Automatic annotation (TrEMBL), chains A, B:
Keywords: Hydrolase, Pyridine nucleotide biosynthesis, Pyridoxal phosphate. This is Kynureninase. The keyword Hydrolase applies. Belongs to the kynureninase family. Its EC number is 3.7.1.3. Pfam families: KYNU_C. Homodimer. It comes from Streptomyces siamensis.
Amino acid sequence: MSEPRGNAVRSEPSARAAQLDAADELAGLRKRFVLDDAVYLDGNSLGALPADVPARIDDVVRRQWGELRIRSWEESGWWTAPERIGDRIAPLVGAAPGQIVVGDSTSVNVFKALVGAVRLAGDGRDEIVVDATTFPTDGYIAASAARLTGCELRPVEPAEVPGALGPRTAAVLLNHVDYRTGRLHDLPSLTAAIHDAGALAVWDLCHSAGALPVGLDAHGVDLAVGCTYKYLNGGPGSPAYLYVAAAHQDRFDSPLPGWNSHAEPFGMSPTYAPAPGALRGRVGTPDILSMLALEAALDVWDGVSVDSVRAKSLALTDFFLDCVSQYVPEGRVESLTPPAHADRGSQVALRCADAGTVMKSLIEQGVIGDFRHPDVLRFGFTPLYVGFADVERAARVLGRTLGG
Amino acid sequence: MSEPRGNAVRSEPSARAAQLDAADELAGLRKRFVLDDAVYLDGNSLGALPADVPARIDDVVRRQWGELRIRSWEESGWWTAPERIGDRIAPLVGAAPGQIVVGDSTSVNVFKALVGAVRLAGDGRDEIVVDATTFPTDGYIAASAARLTGCELRPVEPAEVPGALGPRTAAVLLNHVDYRTGRLHDLPSLTAAIHDAGALAVWDLCHSAGALPVGLDAHGVDLAVGCTYKYLNGGPGSPAYLYVAAAHQDRFDSPLPGWNSHAEPFGMSPTYAPAPGALRGRVGTPDILSMLALEAALDVWDGVSVDSVRAKSLALTDFFLDCVSQYVPEGRVESLTPPAHADRGSQVALRCADAGTVMKSLIEQGVIGDFRHPDVLRFGFTPLYVGFADVERAARVLGRTLGG
């Protein structure tokens, strides 16, 4: 049906997409990525390749490794990469410099953070509370951290956390954004409730960093971890990071005190003495190729405001939900993603009985999202490179696939 | 002085070098590496760049990540890389397939191996014995593993290990080759002594894998770890590996049970159930760029016999020690490396009062070794790309630098 001119809200989705794209202040960033004709809505699993990364990695491999070899540990800044790149991530998650080190996987960093938090919490606190809806690895690692520190593990729905805290609670591990539903949890109020109970708050930022403001320092988060291959576009399996709030650093006691976290790593002392600051979150020799690919990928963020990214992210998910309601037959899908902006990350999850088959068909038609067992279609919206025309096309193809 | 013709042993070092290079069956491998005019004797710290790696990494970045993106987890074999590459390392350390996974740093793998070993050892065994001369990170991590499992840590010189074992010993962590002196420890007899005491043997192969036969299966080693950036030439900070002997795999209980080690990683179950086999040594998402650089680097080993590598390694270090005794003024250096072949790895360590200054000068003259605090000149000999003329030149430059 034809819509009245000048009323963007009621115009055809394709016309609205064109208007929204024309007004998008981040639209120019798309050309900084390698993209093709597909609509890539899986950046919440693996971010697209930033265009400058291949040449940088080639230089790291051919010149830094091939020619300078061992000298690159100093001359190419390899040795200090974990803290240098941590300081590049810091402004994206609201952290002052000197609190983040990059390295190891998210799982390994969850382990460091949780054991470290239990030790910081001190005697008499022997319970770890974990998000019952967490991405599984966090729960598995939390169980191991609890077992090794003599704590009890309590899985609790995030909304129930404040009521579940008590004098035994040492640490609480929560996801900022739920990997399955895309629900954004209330980091400021949950952190405050955890502190009121005398416990430490450990946040997993995998699905929020690079998509929305986090405010680690402002909200007094104690420890945090995150991956870098989703909204930070660091590449497949790029190293994760660990945030240790400045106030805790002198007492942070890592369960993985490798030589890279030693105060004098080349002193080769048989006795361990931790380095000051966030450095004590380091473990072994950093994986330089993956780490420097991440560093190159972060250049895209220069001059980009996380608030602008958040505004566009919400506009993208709003528009997608609108388009879905217009294109998809009633009752064919159910959104698991909260309608309120305050509760929404940067993805939309749609429950759909035949989700596995549907996603396969979408991918064949050039709309790349992913399927999460058993019945979830997951679409991630990376504001740096997804546009509104992409969103309209994705919803249109989905509607057609579902018989609309 | 002139030497009798036909007596290679007594000929001039440069003539002997030419003879030895001419007879070197591995000499052809040198062209598979990117090398320059320098003599690179630091491959025991960072292996040289294999010539085929840059193009492979470029393909991984541009095509696998840039074009296939998320599809590469299946289509480019990313997901199975840790165990596939583990099986490439296996023959180099005498392991049958299915016992090695690649990933994480050596330090993290030491932690998995030691905590796993203590759990395998069972009740009543609450002592971890660690090589008192170990590379420091192994000792630091062993202390953490002991603390978290309620064990006592006992540092013991490797030669004293058999007499130090008792009914409380759960696990013993030893280095196959000492990082400082280049001493090769007797893996078969020490492993047998550890087993006689009912404990588990955990070996660190960082300085032996790729330089000499290890024989993990043949000697019944329980667990082992190693890095891949020394004699395996995997690149700066390339991922380490964990060996879990087949006999222990069903009971191996990792302290880092990340989702990659789950029996059904995409089942997203909140309950952990370990995968069968060596897979349970995996943790989080593997760092694909570093890992696939390693995979490309391992191609150099196709058709290469570790026994030939060992024979050349001993010939190189023998020749270096001969040249040093000829070129370097008496008493100016003292070899810390054992003269007996059975006790020698693939490096020569020379004690020298002003070692720091001397190494700086050697490097300026194109002879790249390294300095280990406080007084050690360390020279590593990678048989795949170091030749005998290199060795002669290195000793000659050293002799000149030391006033010979």
